[in-house]
Amino acid sequence: EVEHAPHLAVTGTPWPGGVAVYQSSTDADFVLNSIIAARASMGFLARPLLRADPGVIDYGDPLEVKMIHGTLQSISDTALLNGGNLVAVGDGSPDNWELLQFRDAELISPNQFLVSHRLRGQAGTDAIMQEEWPIGSWFVAMNGVPKQINLLRALRRVSQTFRIGPSKRSYDDPSYTEAVHAFNGNGLRPSAPVHLALSDFAGDVKASWIRRTRHDGDDWELPDVPLAEETESYTV
What we know:
With 236 residues, this protein is mainly β. The protein is 2% helix and 39% strand. The strands form five sheets. It has a six-stranded antiparallel beta barrel with strand order 4-7-10-9-8-12.
């Protein structure tokens, strides 16, 4: 992935067969940024999702999800640990999203599911997990359909105007939706350290932790994970 570029998930009724994304820095002279070919599987929470520990299975109450489009299905433990059933839960703003996975999906009524046996705060989003994701929060399947739009790294945190609508129509058609966003490039954010320990050291308090990495951290033969950042520094 391009670490600083946002993903875009789109749905609509009726689905136009393809969606165009136009971009402008001045609210004029729009240029084509991307074409989104497929409709995203997405819905919203019909029951609040409470905070849970990352890195371990969340055995909490099943999460009730109402799907607008698409369906959910259960997977095996192996598929779960290989990254399956990855979804984003958030409020629709550019920054406020938690990535989680789930193993079990139970259909309880048309387009309504109970989701359980979850892995929370995936891909570094444990640092922004909310105490509660309320009813109505968005639920988006990150199954390869939501695509990253093109964004120059120099345009991080620079407001851009986007127009999104049916690819068969012009960007000035009334069917287009306009939004102004600036993106922080959250994929560049270092992962928060873990396993904080405090001890008494000659009358002072000594703090230690385990560092995580955004890249190449899965090799268990290494004594420590790669730094993957320009410098190692912390705010305490």
